[in-house]
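Lab notebook, bench 4. Still working through the backlog of constructs that have no structural model yet. Next entry is a single chain of 251 residues. Request: give me the structure tokens for it.
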Amino acid sequence: MHLYREYPPHPALAGHVACLWTSHAVPDGAPVRTRVLPDNCIDILWQDRTPLGMVAGMMSRPHHVEAAVPVLTVAVRFLPGAARAFFDLPLYELQDGHPALADLWPRAQAEALAQALWERERTPAARLAIIERALLARLHARAPARADALARAAVVRLEASGGAVRIDDLAADLGITRQHLALLFRERVGLSAKTFAMVCRFRRAHAALRRQPDAVDWARLAGDCGYYDQSHLIHAFRQFADATPESFRLS
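Model written out:
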């Protein structure tokens, strides 16, 4: 059994946080296995079995998670391009990694947060409120940077186009060089602009595939989602889902 639920963020965090979420994996004779797909987001997770917390960096490939014992998770998912306000390091250093939060935040701060979350039984809402207060404290302690706004503008444009906008055109629209844009994505987003766009396109195809009836016109689906042809679509699913589109649809 795997119970997953998302919650809207505090209004003061809405410009940075996509959602807060909880997960309760309870194996019933066999491990609970979850395939986590790239979504262009960074998460912080706190689990009752690893209470200090860990960060899930931007993903350039799928991750497979297995729970052989019950695990309770509370977490925050940042909007694409918005997590840099909560970390004092270039976000590309987190790519495809799961470092401990205590290695990225002051250890005393991470320990105090973990203690507040897990020292006694609390409702999910109470735990999420504790996380929100910690995030608000970090946000208020940091002055906004122009680079943050540029990164968010670039991300919004790429997402709105489904990953179709050319990187050179994106840089020109923002009034910066392609090299500056590349640096912006490495430091403020966590993936290269090209990979970010590829994930946008994959997510578009993934959503479109979920809406398809039993008979799928694969060539049309590929074209509608910005792929050259069906083989290009298959390659993307192998890269980001470890599956062909057909096997993924049936899983």
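Notes after review: Residues 10 and 132 are 7 Å apart (CA to CA). Residues 193-210 form the longest helix (18 residues). Flag for follow-up if needed.
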